[in-house]
Amino acid sequence: MTQDPIIGTNQSLEQLWARVEEKYNLTRDKSWVERSALSLQCRIQTIEKAVKKLNGCIRQVENLNPSGASDQDIMNRAKRMLLDDPNYKKGFKFDHVWHIVRNFEKFKDNVMTSKQISRKHAFDYLSSESKNPTPESQAPESPELSQFSFNLNDSVGGSPSERPIGQKKAKLKKKMDDEVTTSLSRLKDDNSKIMEMLEKTNADRQMFIEMQSKNLAFQQMKYEDKILMRDLNSITDPNIRACIQAQQQEILQKRGHFQQPPPSGSNMFNDIFGNIGGSGDNIPDY
């Protein structure tokens, strides 16, 4: 709640703890008890006191400069040191929130390490030299000393404690993130619409091709029917009659009729359309 740069610096104490109470009771586990704002304040104070104490023990272990000790080794030694305090004989009980609050400024022990103390002495020395310059101190003898003066704010381990970004920067960053999200969402919607249009166009094209194919097939059938209906006896030119007869035979083979070519046009007509109105159908002859 207090780490939020947009809201954290512009709220009263009552507003802060009202928001903490609301957030806790909305997100708490069912097995946890419901707490009031006052109860949460007391709980935070207890955690703050224990975390500060453990941070102090960690600083003491770090001041000993243990050779080859890892962060976990330092933590274990600090917890054993914490057991010497009569108020913490049962040990540190807030490991579940340690990784969250250990770097909060409010939860630090405010005790400088040996490295920070040495840097402070060097800074005081440089400040006094700048106020009372001597011929020897007007220009540094080596670049290392000048470089050192630029790194006085480095914390232990090379990771400075950064404050939250300012309110205006946080709002600007949030606004830019929202604009990027909106642009990406709009681009995604536009791409979806384009894909829908392409799919619809492709479906329309396929339908048009299918209709064209059906139309061509229908026109071809009409033309073939016209050829089949030609009366060969009415054609006087033998060459034309032979050509028409060959076309009729080809059409019949394509449609599944394998009859031999009829000797005359009238028989060709009967082979195609059957015995329409003949005596075999019990229908009077024409």
From TrEMBL:
- Region annotated Disordered, chain positions: 127-177
Pfam families tied to this protein: NAM-associated
Q: Domain of life, per the record? A: Eukaryota
Using the record's annotation, list all stretches that form the No apical meristem-associated C-terminal domain. 90-251
Q: Where is the composition biased (Polar residues)?
A: 127-158
Official protein name in the record: Uncharacterized protein LOC120274650
Species whose genome carries this gene? Dioscorea cayennensis subsp. rotundata (White Guinea yam)
Upper classification of the source organism reads: Eukaryota, Viridiplantae, Streptophyta, Embryophyta, Tracheophyta
Report which gene this protein is encoded by: LOC120274650
